[in-house]
Amino acid sequence: AQSVTQLGSHVSVSEGALVLLRCNYSSSVPPYLFWYVQYPNQGLQLLLKYTSAATLVKGINGFEAEFKKSETSFHLTKPSAHMSDAAEYFCAVSDPTGFQKLVFGTGTRLLVSP
Amino acid sequence: EAGVTQSPTHLIKTRGQQATLRCSPISGHTSVYWYQQALGLGLQFLLWYDEGEERNRGNFPPRFSGRQFPNYSSELNVNALELEDSALYLCASSLSNSNQPQHFGDGTRLSIL
Q: Closest Cα partner for B49 from B76, B27, B26?
């Protein structure tokens, strides 16, 4: 069975500060990993994905994530936060050999202050 | 390119009624997924359809069902509605390959009175 743990239900940063959202996964097979963002009253937007190619993945809006197998982590970072980054972020894992369902973490709400 | 579209945006029902939610995938996508986002329960996988067939089902009772049409659009039906079915229901679509990401619609908010 696969699972995802997102440490911190809320993360607060100042505008211009580094954003770090943590994600650890558990999977019995090499996983596919994803980060999605959800703005209020909207669906999920794909930020980036890891599907066993380069371990450092660059996504949209200046976000990137690094797959670290030894740490079973896939943390999301952005060098400089913008006010528009305030949203809820979800890490998800899927089993590439299985039934393609996404297993989501519980989400991290990013708050950005001026 | 049009994204995943869901209808209706909001749906209000009472206990015991039946609800039908609709989803149109991105053009060229043959896989459709349904997820439930309920307060306090997070995002839970409901159903996966591909090429008109149900391929996988999450841990939900049989009163949650659906289908996929020849044009790859999909319906989610929820029978005998209960208060705890109140949630945002999200539809996603993807190409069939397992390494293809799922793209989500804006959801249908189902409220049970």
A: B76
HSE-CB for B82 with a 13 A CA cutoff: 6
How far, in Å, CA of B89 to CA of B36, rounded?
5
Q: Taking a C-beta distance cutoff of 8 angstroms, is the pair B26, B1 a contact?
A: yes
Least CB–CB distance from B56: residue in A34, A96, A99: A99
User: Which residue from B minimizes the CA distance to A48?
Assistant: B101
Q: How far is B107 from chain A (nearest CA, A)?
A: 6
Please give the sequence-ordered ranges of beta strands (E in DSSP) within chain B, or none if there are none: 5-7, 10-13, 19-24, 31-38, 42-50, 53-57, 64-68, 74-78, 87-94, 103-104, 108-112
At B15, which amino acid appears?
A: R
Q: Cβ of A34 and B42 within 8 Å? A: no
- Tens digit of pLDDT at every position of chain B (113 positions): 689 999 999 999 999 999 999 999 999 999 999 999 998 888 999 999 999 999 999 999 999 999 999 999 999 999 999 999 999 999 999 988 767 889 999 999 999 99
Q: Which residues have a Cβ under 8 Å from the Cβ of B69 and sit 6 or more positions away?
A: B52, B75
